[in-house]
Amino acid sequence: MKAITLVFNSFSDSFKVIKDAGLRKFYFLPGIISMFLFGGFIYLGEYLSLNLASALENFFKLQEYGSILYIFIKILVWICTVFFYYLVYKSLLLVIISPILGYVSERVETHLTGKKFDFTFKDNLRFLIRGIDIGLKSFFKQMVGTCVVMLLGFIFPINLSIPLLIFIIQGYFTGFSFMDYTLERYNLSPKESLDFLKKQRVYAALCGGIFTLLFFIPVVGIFIAPLITCVATTMITLELLKEHSKV
Asked: Using an 8 Å Cβ cutoff, are 10 and 105 in contact?
């Protein structure tokens, strides 16, 4: 309950923090980048998805099955294709806008605590490389975990826990990426950040899960989800770091 309360309150308060800290312009920049990326993925994804679905249909000889089973398997193939398309799109977007979100996280902490940061160009370059590195590693881990779960979905196609497991995996690693924007300023190494995440996995999964839900809101989601999640997760991570320092 403590985790749910902190996460809920932080996401609720994020709108006020965005307004008070003068961050509303950052709704648009990630959103515009997202729209261009989305357009490119629509163009490429439609072609790739059609060919992948057709290849799987021919490989498994789906037309030989009964009409109902044939339709069911074809729908499952399309769902898997669309889901991988979304996974790549979302992960690539977070990697591209990581410098923006890292800056937003820094502004949020300054607004909340009054603490000012004077990072050198070398520091900012290190943060950029770190954000891209962690984003890519999170993406590959998500891919592996999602592939395993989706293979189980082919074996147990009516198992309702499969979508929930995928959602949790997505949330866990997405939440970690957002939490690391704060952890990097405290000079935690990627390994130390991972150790911190393991202790706070519930918070990471909740933050990433809310991001995913916001991101799925048609049109509006791609504009609001990155900024709101970044602000809320920064607030949560600062609170967790404060509690950690008391231990």
From this structure: no
Angle between helices 201-215 and 190-199 (to 10 degrees): 90
Using a cut of 0.85, tell me whether the model's pTM lies above it.
no
Q: Which residue has the tokens 């957002």?
A: 178
- Closest to 14 measured CA to CA, from 158, 226, 241: 226
pLDDT in tens, 195-245: 888 888 899 999 999 998 998 888 888 899 999 999 999 999 999 988 766
**Euclidean distance between CA atoms 66 and 199, whole angstroms:** 49
Among residues 220, 181, 229, 241, the alpha carbon closest in space to that of 15 is found at 229
Would you tell me how many other CB atoms lie within 10 Å of the CB of residue 117?
10
Q: In whole angstroms, what is the distance from residue 247 CA to residue 243 CA?
A: 7
Look up tokens 């789906």; give the residue.
62
- Among 97, 90, 93, 112, smallest CA distance to 231 is for 112
Residue 229 CA to residue 30 CA, distance in Å, equals: 12
From the number of C-beta atoms within 10 Å of its C-beta (0-12, 13-18, 19+), residue 230 rates as buried
For the chain, helix (H) and strand (E) counts, in that order, are: 9, 0
Compute the distance between CA of residue 104 and CA of residue 107 in angstroms, rounded to an integer: 5
